[in-house]
Amino acid sequence: MKVGLFVPCYVDMFHPETGIATLELLERFGLSVEYPVDQTCCGQPMTNTGCEREAAKTEELFVRNFEKYDYIVTPSGSCTNQVRHNMTAIEQSDAVKHVRSRTYELVEFLHDVLKVDAFPWAEFPHRVALHNNCNTLRNLRIASMTERREEPFSKPKALLKMVKGIEFADLTRPDECCGFGGTFSVFEEGVSAKMGQDKVTDQLKSGAEYVTSSDSSCMMHQEGCARRMGANLKYIHIAQILNGARA
Amino acid sequence: MTAELHEELTDPNADQLDHGAASSRPLKSRISEPQPRGAKVHGNRPIDQSEAANRFIAATEHEAMHDARLWDLRQKRDKEMHGIEEWEELRDLASGIKEHTLSKLDYYLELFEKNATANGIKVHWAKDGAEHNAIVLDILRKKGVERLIKSKSMLTEECGFRHFMAENNVEVIETDLGERIQQLDDEAPSHVVVPAVHKLRTDVAGVFAKTIGSDPDNADAHYLTECQREATRPLILSAQAGMTGGNFVVAETGTFVVCTNEGNADLSANTPPLHIASIGIEKLIPGLDDLAVFVRLLSRSALGSPITQYTSHFRGPREGGEMHVVLVDNGRSARLGMEKFWPGLKCIRCGACMNTCPVFRRSGGLSYGATYAGPIGLIIDPTFNVHKYRNLPYSSTLNGSCTNVCPVKINIHEQIADWRKTLAGEGEISPVKKVMMKAAGEVLASPVVYRASLPLGRSALRHLPHFMLYNKLNTWGRKRDIPETPKQTFNEWYRKNRKQQAEGGKS
């Protein structure tokens, strides 16, 4: 199984440790993982702003970088959603279709494809609040949502439960969007920041020491709000916890 | 009236003031936070929703109350949902019934007309708001009506009905309490179900004090409701005509159904001898069996109550009276022809998408500057005016909560994204967004240019690169800290630590 690693632009730039943890974690399972060094972005900023034509060249580059892999794995559900459901600015060739259907968010990949049943190296004796990115939650269906009448399930929680010592903190509004929303965070800055502050307040009230998520983008926004508010909360990507980070 | 006293007089631990001191010291002002007003409308200029939203957020008492109140409705809705085992099945059914009816709308409209006419209802057809208003005015003039009582109707908001009637010297009295508050304050409804939900009780006390002479310092809900009742009942009793909307129009029986909680639609319809119902053509459903599905979903989704207090079936005029139904298109048949946007016509106006929307709860419905606010508004408003409402589809994080609470399964968040594409394709996008996205597209399409644009290792740059910020004003940093830039990117780390693979991974 040949795996291509996609490290989203903001992870590459601001959270390289998330990329490193993802790579090391996949390697622990004996996979041959490659990171194509000429990668940039999935095209989501342009597509979400309605500028599909402007996304075309970025999407083409993405497909050129990843078409040779059996699976493309990325520590971001939001980018996965873009590739799987919205990469429509370019002609849908076989290569494009292959890349779109083979791109997985890390938690999905571990849970559904590798069917991992243990992380013996992982131990995280802390109180942790889990945040699900909205695309990951409602479009990739990584967990059940409170809006629907369905059997509760959570793939990230199922994985985290295998980590020794971890304790979960419950939020009062677990599914509420944190207000990042990609370009929304800059174009609609006021509402975005207010939503972020409310999310941080909920996390604080839960007694969480750490917040974790399979998406760094939401956490970058939340952490920015938390620091400005002087909130004592730490943000860590789920890949780091599963890879055995010790706080 | 609650007495205004110095805090020292009511606090047992404070140094007590003697009578002289208490009466000579000025009372602390108890002016509450002024109500934030809605979007600024400048003719056909694109509405700036975020400007109005920021003012709403700055009014912290209003924002906190609004968010808590609507979130409470959402939670009550969830509780009701869990009480119905077949909830998701009901949503499928409701969506299917609406799709079926919309696909044969001409047939069902004619069937309704035939059956309603046989029941003694006079059916009128209006292609737009102006035609609707003219038809209603004509009916009223023929009967010499000077005062009309009406219940809540979003359609009449679309038509600018109240203002039109005022220009033509017909007094319109809203009978829904929230709608009456909005009428007296000369504001549009901010929500399709709870039209004055953006107001605090103190705001209402202010409006009533000015318009019906209540005590400005008494913001007790029972007192205010009672004052309104006393002021409005005589007007209701002396009105010569009543108007309602219609939640569902049943083709097979030629009847229509109005759902309310205050019973005000029944007052409007039954007190005067003339009843006019203004109804959008998308409200059709085939039969009474279909109605049962919607009745189970409507109030549970809207308010988290099992059913509305009143579900009134109207099937014909009373003896000696008249009943008219005005079926209004006002852009609906054009919307039906829109490949991506026709499912918006399935909407039953429950407001669940508004209650769940994190942006709506923090912005207030009037920030949208349009008849329909919140998620459903973002996908309906541009069909009325693409230029004026071109920014509205950006007032969403695309989080998808709306789609999943919608009782008729409208793919709201997907349509919001589709509207962005459609509007940008028609050139209806702000130049700032267009320029930034073009630049971002160029940078991200080239690994070399992209790598060169990164701030790392060059200086302790405090600003994000422009392609991520899209904005030289650094709006990110206004209320949020900017993430620290680490010593090296993942890309640089990889090239150093996985040299062999880095060679293999070159495309």
Automatic annotation (TrEMBL), chain A:
<feature type="domain" description="Cysteine-rich">
    <location>
        <begin position="3"/>
        <end position="83"/>
    </location>
</feature>
<dbReference type="Pfam" id="PF02754">
    <property type="entry name" value="CCG"/>
</dbReference>
<dbReference type="InterPro" id="IPR004017">
    <property type="entry name" value="Cys_rich_dom"/>
</dbReference>
<feature type="domain" description="Cysteine-rich">
    <location>
        <begin position="128"/>
        <end position="221"/>
    </location>
</feature>
<protein>
    <submittedName>
        <fullName>(Fe-S)-binding protein</fullName>
    </submittedName>
</protein>
TrEMBL record, chain B:
<keyword id="KW-0677">Repeat</keyword>
<keyword id="KW-0813">Transport</keyword>
<keyword id="KW-0479">Metal-binding</keyword>
<feature type="region of interest" description="Disordered">
    <location>
        <begin position="1"/>
        <end position="49"/>
    </location>
</feature>
<keyword id="KW-0249">Electron transport</keyword>
<dbReference type="InterPro" id="IPR037171">
    <property type="entry name" value="NagB/RpiA_transferase-like"/>
</dbReference>
<keyword id="KW-0408">Iron</keyword>
<dbReference type="InterPro" id="IPR017896">
    <property type="entry name" value="4Fe4S_Fe-S-bd"/>
</dbReference>
<dbReference type="InterPro" id="IPR017900">
    <property type="entry name" value="4Fe4S_Fe_S_CS"/>
</dbReference>
<dbReference type="InterPro" id="IPR009051">
    <property type="entry name" value="Helical_ferredxn"/>
</dbReference>
<dbReference type="InterPro" id="IPR004452">
    <property type="entry name" value="LutB/LldF"/>
</dbReference>
<feature type="domain" description="4Fe-4S ferredoxin-type">
    <location>
        <begin position="337"/>
        <end position="365"/>
    </location>
</feature>
<dbReference type="Pfam" id="PF13183">
    <property type="entry name" value="Fer4_8"/>
</dbReference>
<keyword id="KW-0004">4Fe-4S</keyword>
<keyword id="KW-0411">Iron-sulfur</keyword>
<dbReference type="Pfam" id="PF02589">
    <property type="entry name" value="LUD_dom"/>
</dbReference>
<dbReference type="InterPro" id="IPR024185">
    <property type="entry name" value="FTHF_cligase-like_sf"/>
</dbReference>
<dbReference type="InterPro" id="IPR003741">
    <property type="entry name" value="LUD_dom"/>
</dbReference>
<protein>
    <submittedName>
        <fullName>Lactate utilization protein</fullName>
    </submittedName>
</protein>
